Amino acid sequence: MTLPDLIPRSVLFGNPDHMATAISPDGTRLGWVAPEDGVLNVWVGPLDGSSPARAVTHDRDRGVRTYAFCHDDRHLVYLQDTAGDESWRLYVLDLETGEATLATPGEGVQARIIGHNRWHRGTVLLALNARDPQLHDVHALDLATGGLTLVAENPGFVDWLVDSDMRLRGALTMDADGGAQIHLRRSLPASADAGPDPEASDPASYELWLEVPPDDAASTDVLGFTRDETGGPGALLLMSSIDANATRLQRHDLATGEVALLGADDRYDVAGAWQNPETLEVQAVEYLRERQEVVLLDPSLQADLDAVHALRALPGIGDGEISVGRRERSDRWWTVAVSPSDGPVNFFVYDRTTQQARHLFPHRAELVGRPLAVMEPFSFTARDGLTVHGYLTFPTGVERSGLPAVLNVHGGPWARDTWGFDPEAQWLANRGYVCVQVNFRASTGYGKAFLNAGDKQWGAAMQDDLTDAVAHVVAQGWVDPDRVGIYGGSYGGYAVLAGAAFTPDLYRCGVDIVGPSNLATLLASVPEYWRPLISMMYRRVGNPETEAALLEERSPLSAVDKIRIPLLVVQGANDPRVKQAEAEQIVAALTAKGLPHEYLLFEDEGHGLAKPQNRERMYARAEAFLAEHLGGRVEPPAAG
Q1: Largest interatomic CA distance in the chain
Q2: Which residue in 29, 73, 95, 97 has the most C-beta neighbors within 10 A?
Q3: Taking Cα atoms as reference points, which of 264, 247, 202, 589 lies closest to residue 446?
Q4: For residue range 265-282, what is the model confidence (pLDDT) as tens digits?
């Protein structure tokens, strides 16, 4: 038995051929993101394919990844930052003239889109933190003129609630103990595209609608409002774990007070909903258990769901998770993506009138026919009895016995790994490692008890779950205990440093990508627009004012003397979340102690690597580093 052919890193980590497919609201255009001269840009062509698509943006630096067709059927908008600083600027592109215009301030201001729909086609509601870097005020963008009008100043809200009539209906706040409050306007306001709404800036215009306890704050949120054609209040769709373990989806009729339960599971959170494009009522509920499950509430979609699921049986597609886009106004045409774990993501246009789909393209054509591995769910019992889930990707072509392994830790940490195509899992398996991905406590999706079990457990019980995962795969005989590495980005990078410092005999090497090394400095340096959420960070990580000793104890920098394994530290110079100082201070400490390490600093990146040339440099170095210490395979240098 032998490992299969090497898959080039450029195939796994280069720019995708296609991504982010979307149909214009009028059903005439199809858009996607693809490279132009090696840089990702937005491409647009006719939906029927009657003529070739063309690039409509022409960036030559970091590329364009986030865009949306506008409901005026003439424009699209896209977002860009500068060198990874996450100060998002919004551009408006005229699809008839090809002219792109910067619509928001370009320096140090973050733009967020909070409202745009078929009923208010010429206006986009934006939240901008130009007045106060901690607070986002609401502005109305006129697509025809490009003019920005201030609608409301933010008096201290974490987020705004906007309905389909573009009315500022409510807001969210947080208190000092990490709890949240949902506030609704005392009376229905006018549409925000009608001009300024000064009452929206006055806290007295709101009444408390729901008090969210601290244990539920991270698992409770407003999904939106249903549409009332009479102009009435409609219903509020609430994702909530209050009085339950897992997040449920509820419909609160704001006129009658009636509450309907639309989706619930004892163990798994509701992960999303399909909404009727005309009424915004919920038609289906999604769960992410080991794999995706869609539960229909509207039986009229059953034939469509069956047809979409049947795409997985087509030759060359594979059994994958389904993603459906439905912004086209007639709801005739859907975009569908199918993501297997052992093949590329494939994109389709689905016609509901015929229940037939037209295959568009895979996200990366060069993956077709490559020796990709299947991702497999697994679970184990942690040392305190908690059941922890995750995914394993084994090398193909070799016996599952005594293999080297890399524990690949997800970021967040309030996020989770999911089943589907994962280029890092494929890379590690192809190089000969078992890729171990663990949804440790504090990961989302498994109910609030599991989520909250991670409170103030950075470097403690959260890290123990990773340690116990390694013990589990070793106990099965799959993994050689002397050849285990740890790898991760953001929180995953912290876990790498914590693993090296707190369990120095468990791993043979570690790759830390934009990971914090000192929890006190991490909390002191969060972006200004995160400050309204800082009480949640203090509740879940630790309060510097009252728990300084805890933060020091859990900081890998404080235990650098215990580190014995070689480390590769990767950092973006413009990272606004985990500042460059987090990498510099651990590198300085490692240098002072004479501990083995390497440091890669990318001057033109932020919280992660956007440019393919930077990704190639990082993955090439990480691959050689892992091979040196764990014995996996390395792609040979290109000839010449």
Answers
A1: 74
A2: 29
A3: 247
A4: 999 999 999 999 999 999
Q: Is 16 helix (H, G, I), strand (E, B) or coil?
A: coil
Q: How many CA atoms lie within 13 A of 23 on its CB side?
A: 27
DSSP string over 405-463:
EEEEE-SSSSS---SS--HHHHHHHHTTPEEEEEE-TT-SSS-HHHHHTTTT-TTTHHH
Structural contact between residues 126 and 81, judged by C-beta atoms closer than 8 angstroms: no
Question: Per residue in 322-369, pLDDT tens?
Answer: 999 999 999 999 999 999 999 999 999 999 999 999 999 999 999 999
Which pTM value belongs to this model? 0.97
Q: Say how far apart CA 566 and CA 594 lie, in whole Å.
A: 11
Distances in Å between the Cα of 483 and the Cα atoms of 23, 381, 404, 467, 505 are 48, 23, 5, 14, 11
Q: How far apart are CA 79 and CA 81, in angstroms?
A: 7
Per the CB < 8 A criterion, the answer to whether 332 and 352 are in contact is: yes
Q: Indicate the DSSP class of residue 613.
A: H
Residue 219, both tokens: 């698992």
C-alpha 543/C-alpha 524 separation (Å) is: 10
The single residue of 490, 517, 535, 555 carrying the catalytic annotation is: 490
Active site residue 607: yes
- Collapsing DSSP to helix, strand or coil, 239 comes out as strand
Question: How buried is 576 (Cβ within 10 angstroms: 0-12 exposed, 13-18 middle, 19+ buried)?
Answer: buried
In sequence order, the 6+-apart residues with CB closer than 8 A to the CB of 600 are 568, 569, 570, 571, 617, 618, 621
441 backbone dihedrals φ, ψ, rounded to 5°: -55, 145
Q: CA 339 to CA 341: how far, in whole Å?
A: 7
Active-site option among 216, 558, 575, 629: 575
Q: Among 464, 397, 325, 350, which Cα is nearest to 19's?
A: 325
Alpha-carbon gap, residue 355 to 120, rounded angstroms? 30
Helices (H), 311-411: none
